[in-house]
Prior knowledge:
By secondary structure, the protein is mainly alpha-helical. The chain is built from six helices and two strands, in the order H-H-H-H-H-E-E-H.
Amino acid sequence: xxxxxxxxxxxxxxxxxxxxxxxxxxxxxxxxxxxxxxxxxxxxxxxxxxxxxxxxxxxxxxxxxxxxxxxxxxxxxxxxxxxxxxxxxxxxxxxxxxxxxxxxxxxxxxxxxxxxxxxxxxxxxxxxxxxxxxxxxxxxxxxxxxxxxxxxxxxxxxxxxxxxxxxxxx
Length: 170
Ligand SMILES: [Zn+2]
Ligand SMILES: [Zn+2]
């Protein structure tokens, strides 16, 4: 999902200037300073990402509460989320965009987990899938979802199958 927000446009313009669209050395210097600050803040927010995913995207924290928590304005946190591609859940939105969509595989939270997390069993970061604890694939409450890599996932299901065999044999 690609969403262009107002904040993104503000990022694009300085980049054009830095690329040498008729500017003097002073501007270049200033742009480099801005770029450094931007990278620093990007790294900072990347560290906070798991917390934001947990409390806000998957949890019931509001944008206001999140902004309060980090000591920034609501507008500021909105820009940060947009930059990181985290959908905001405002009251006016319904369905998948609010991150608490009940139905299956296309929900935001589901995708966020697959894209951003690592296998909870071995820590692998690729070939991830979502395992449903209760095997009900429409139950996407966060506590029912586990991020696993493909191999850990198939191992888990094989193990379950054997356990079932044993249980029915005895
Ligand atoms: Zn794994
Ligand atoms: Zn599974």
